[in-house]
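Researcher: Here's a chain I'd like modeled. Treat it as a single chain, no partners, no ligands.
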Amino acid sequence: MKTFIKSLGWLCFAALLAFSGCAKKKSTSWSSYSDPVVTAQMKSFVTEKEAQANAAVRANGQSMPPELNRFFKDADKGDWTAVNSDFKELRDHAPQYEHSGSTDLHLRGTAWAAVVEIWGVFDAMSEGGQKYSTLYANEIINSIPPGSIYFGGTDPGRFLITGMEKNQAKGDPFYLITQNALADDTYLDYVRSMYGKQLYIPTMEDSEKCFRDYTEDAKKRAKNHQLKPGENVQVDSQSGRVAISGEVAVMEINGLIAKVVFDQNSNEDFYVEQSFPLDWMYPYLEPHGMILKLDRHPLPNLSDAILKEDRDYWSNLIQPMIGNWLIGDTSVQQLSDFVKKTFRQHDFTGFSGDPQFFRDSYACKMFSKERASIAELYLWRMGHATNPEDKQRMAHEADFAFKQALALWPQTPEAVSEYKKMLTEEGRDSDASVVTRLGE
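Model: Modeled as a single isolated chain. Structure tokens:
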């Protein structure tokens, strides 16, 4: 299992990079943040993480390695260029990841986790403009009751919230865990060091059981040709040994460990910012502003009041961004015309939204991703409806939510693929073709 978990650490990091794409970074410093509140919060976050790392190193009777000291000093200055360079150099020696360099065993535990968190926050803040990154973070943070547990999956859903909540290490105002790294025992150690006195954090034994459970289940499904697309599971016909790889398999294991967190912290409220859907969660989920609430018990259906609140919330949220043209009966062709005019031709004549939003592709992607996640919930509900009326209600909400997601960013992969699939199943082939072209 140890070898497998090492591989998982690299895969989790690869999944992290998938959203941001780290080819070209803007050079940032504290002076680049126009809002003094944001600047103060970012400085406080770096101080918090550095203190956390120093305390962990001292507790082990060690001193901070010079390469980590350099990283923290550059972070103290808010120097993104130096932070990014330092991190890439450190990453090429960290034992959790696959690399060709020598392995440095200092790059593990709480100190290394703090480095990853700082790098992730700087990365997310540098990718997008401050206006919409701040709006995104505040919308999520202000929607979550104090003392709750928040699963943050995507880069912005994890790192923008990590950097902008009052004190992540103290769980103030809520406990933040990424479901994408739970299969990495070093990450669980880090979370345990922060929240282990307040919450039940899965043990190594829990992780090993989840791994075994997944392996046995995957072995059976592989035999019956029931694996999910992209779920790479190979069973040796002679020894019966199972080889597992790929992000789909990683997320299946992450999902099992997330279920342990959910089950064992039965008195806490849970909220989810979804990157990869975790199947077991769907019966428990309901829309909650930009994200999803994970109810304690499965919901038989989503009430009309929940649907209206969600529809109104998103319409009000995105109207200043894209204008007020998108309503319930807006056609797929009208959506395509809007995308062509704004995203393709950059023509904003007669436009009542914010052209600045369309110049911030990171903002477009992250808001679109959140709306697509809610649309996928409606799609799941549609497929599990027990009567025609409820199926039609869910189809109507999914249709509208997918249109909003694609108006925010027409190339969001899950929005394109799932909406296209839905339209095809409804016999709306011409609309499905239009959606396909949106994602090209």
